[in-house]
User: Fold this.
Amino acid sequence: MWNRRLAPWTAVGLLLFLLLAGCSQEMRDDARIKPMEASLLFPDGQSARPLPANVVPRDGYDLSDPLYTGLENGQPIATMPVPLTAELLQQGQRQYIIYCSPCHGLDGYGDGMIVQRGFPSPPSYHSDRLRRAPDGHYFDVISNGFGLMFEYGSRVPPADRWAIIAYIRALQLSQNAAADQLAPQDLEQLHGSE
Ligand code: HEC
Assistant:
């Protein structure tokens, strides 16, 4: 006789049996190649495939190249090793606003929103010392942090770090340009506002 109370348990038991039976087909029995094992599939006879050209390892930049450290022989490089373009500045502006302006402020005076709420104030980019500091110093500070400032190397990739530095230079110039560096229309505007 079919026992009504036992029926659900029989169903559960059957399900468990099927599940466990399924587990016996383990992945370790599948045909596959061990790391570094030879393979007939590729002409070079190796199963390990070489990296495609121009691949940059996510966390393994060539640290002997100033492009990824800002340093040469341990010293900060004077000027950035990437060409300055309008696109680079725009990219730098976007990244600066996201990553730096909360503390350094939109114009770089060190009075960003977090600082207004009590975070220690960073130095102004418009001090003589930071105006004169080499580009490589900025790169190093972004990559590794500086004093109270945490590192942004894990969040901002090298190309964006140079873009940010280009934008900081533009900010510095915006607050400290000699009149003869200005375009005629800017000079006109300047005189017009006097
Ligand atoms: C959370 C706040 C904060 C953020 C965000 C931040 N900084 Fe800073 N930064 C600081 C503080 C605070 C100092 C001063 C640290 C000290 O002197 O101990 C500082 C110092 C610096 C200095 C000066 C180093 C020197 O020689 O005195 C540079 C350059 C700098 N930051 C660049 C950046 C850039 C570029 C970004 C964005 C990628 C950034 N910071 C994001 C807080 C911040």
About this structure: The domain at 83-176 is CATH 1.10.760.10 (Cytochrome Bc1 Complex; Chain D, domain 2). Residues 99-100, 102-104, 114, 119-120, 122-123, 133, 138, 141-142, 146-149, 152, 156, 164 surround heme C (CB under 6 Å). The chain has a mean pLDDT of 89.
